[in-house]
């Protein structure tokens, strides 16, 4: 996964957009400009971290409407939105923050404010993407275990003894030991505490029900 941050700048004012692309590019950011909300929605897969810099007032689809479309897609959870306005619209600013905006910058203000907001947003986004990537890798590793290895791993990580696990699963203690060793070995785990920490933050099919059963 490419985790280099990408700044998506959406503004229908071509001259302003290009000037900000140049400014942010000279500040060290990789920038991709879009002239409308539709261009962004059709032209970006949102797989890379970074941020979205949106003009709040655009024709056809406004920045507020674009933000809502991105929220509905789940894009803004790990991809912060920074709004640009030339109008100092307080009511709009309040609305954007309620909908999860990261910052709200006036176009005619200090350009360093935009640079600082973009930098903070990108740092946040990269960290979020890295966490999500770790979870995806863990999920893939967990899914690669056999069903019995999963049955043993989860309660073992939650402090159950081999004897307790064997009784719950209706299998022998030696069989539990074998599956436990296999699961720990495949995941590179040294003990129950490390397994517990490894499983933290991992949920979904195959995990939740086993956690509940081992309580």
UniProtKB/TrEMBL annotation:
What name does UniProt use for this protein?
Answer: DNA-binding response regulator
What GO biological process terms are annotated to this protein in UniProt? phosphorelay signal transduction system; regulation of DNA-templated transcription
Q: Which organism is it from?
A: Sutterella megalosphaeroides
**SUPFAM superfamilies under this entry?**
C-terminal effector domain of the bipartite response regulators, CheY-like
Name the UniProt key words of this record, in alphabetical order: DNA-binding, Phosphoprotein, Transcription, Transcription regulation
Report whether Phosphoprotein shows up as a keyword of the record: yes
Tell me which residues bear 4-aspartylphosphate.
Answer: 55
Q: Which SMART domains match?
A: HTH_LUXR, REC
The HTH luxR-type domain is annotated at 138-203
Q: Which Gene3D superfamilies match?
A: 3.40.50.2300, Winged helix-like DNA-binding domain superfamily/Winged helix DNA-binding domain
One annotated GO molecular function is: DNA binding
Show where the Response regulatory domain sits: 6-122
Q: Which InterPro entries match?
A: CheY-like_superfamily, Sig_transdc_resp-reg_C-effctor, Sig_transdc_resp-reg_receiver, Tscrpt_reg_LuxR_C, WH-like_DNA-bd_sf
Q: Transmembrane stretches, by residue range?
A: none
